[in-house]
Amino acid sequence: MLNDFLLHFRTYSLRRIKDAFQENKGQTDYEKIDDLITYAKANLDIIKRQVVIGELYRGPETVIENHLKSTKTAKQ
């Protein structure tokens, strides 16, 4: 459950970053670039905070997650 949330959040974040880079790759105005960097840093702080909150309030692992963990350790 938590892993799914973190995976979806990670996928969403990566997609947003790639889209933002593609959208602004031709930007030459230094003031606009500085604004974009400031905005990106603020978003990074939000992402980090959400990950911490997600880890703090995670629920119990599902049966499938437990099974996958036991399967991985058995293979090693």
Q: pLDDT average, as an integer?
A: 83
Low-pLDDT runs of 5+ residues are none
**Element-level helix/strand string:** HHH
Spatial shape: elongated
- Overall tally of structural domains: 1
Rg, please? 18 Å
The biggest beta sheet is recorded as: none
User: What structural class do helix, strand and pairing data support?
Assistant: mainly alpha
Pfam family, one: Complex1_LYR
InterPro entries: Complex1_LYR_dom, ISC_assembly_LYR
Protein name: Complex 1 LYR protein domain-containing protein
GO cellular component, one term: mitochondrion
What does this structure look like?
- This protein has 76 residues and is mostly helical.
- It has one domain.
- The protein has three helices and no strands.
- The chain has helices spanning 2-24, 30-56, 63-75.
- It is elongated and about 55 Å long.
- The two termini are 24 Å apart.
- InterPro entries: Complex1_LYR_dom (IPR008011), ISC_assembly_LYR (IPR051522).
- Residues 9-45 form the Complex 1 LYR protein domain.
- One of its GO terms (biological process) is iron-sulfur cluster assembly.
